[in-house]
Amino acid sequence: MKVKFDHIDIKILKMLIEDGRQTVTQISKKTALSNSGIKKRVTKLNESGILKIQGNFNLEAMDFKACIILLEIKNFEYISEISNAYNSCSYVFLVAEILGSFNLMIGLCGNGDQDLNNKLKLCGPSNKEGVLHSKIILISDFKFPQYLPLHLSLKKNEDINKTNSCGFKCVDCAAFIKNECKGCC
């Protein structure tokens, strides 16, 4: 589906990218379109899957460290399995199939260098069955985007005994036991 935006749609999208909390009235004043007109356009963009207004996180402001993991996976079944395993991980901000010598890319963050290192060594995707080769690229400074979507869990370790979607159980992890990792839930 090829999408064509008119100048009003583009103006609305730019305003929402800058501040997703802008009200219909605020947008209406800047576009000279009625409140109901703005609401219809935003609803249409949202329902078509083009626009999602959400709260994102500034990893640098949170003192998080991040990396990109490039994975060469054995076959499509393993790609699907690993993608599904990490798509709801609290610390994963990106899962994408890619073309080239690697076929899966995962963006992972942690609460600092030690936490990120533990996640990579102990429960990271490089340890999964079907991974032939991996490469880790540490991110030193986010230039763009500044804010990323995360599924951060705000629970207080209520579900620490359950097996996470990645297949690992925090309560059995050496880093969690040594208090070097806060766990994923």
Q: In a few lines, what is going on in this structure?
A:
Helices cover 32% and strands 17% of the residues.
Percentage of residues assigned to helices? 25-40%
Give the second-level CATH assignment, the architecture of the domain at 65-152. 2-Layer Sandwich
User: How is the biggest beta sheet arranged?
Assistant: 4 strands, antiparallel
Arithmetic mean pLDDT: 87
Distance between the termini: 38 Å
Shape: elongated
* Tally of DSSP helical segments: 6
Count every beta strand, where a strand is a DSSP E run of 2 or more residues.
Answer: 4
Strand order of the largest sheet: 2-3-1-4
Kindly estimate the percentage of residues that lie in beta strands according to DSSP: 15-25%
CATH classification, class level of the domain at 65-152: Alpha Beta
**Structural class, please?**
alpha+beta
| CATH topology title of the domain at 65-152 | Alpha-Beta Plaits
Q: Low-confidence stretches at least 5 residues in length (pLDDT < 50)?
A: none
Q: Return the string of H and E elements.
A: HHHEHEEHEH
Question: Keywords, please?
Answer:
185 residues; alpha+beta; Arc Repressor Mutant, subunit A; Alpha-Beta Plaits; 4 strands
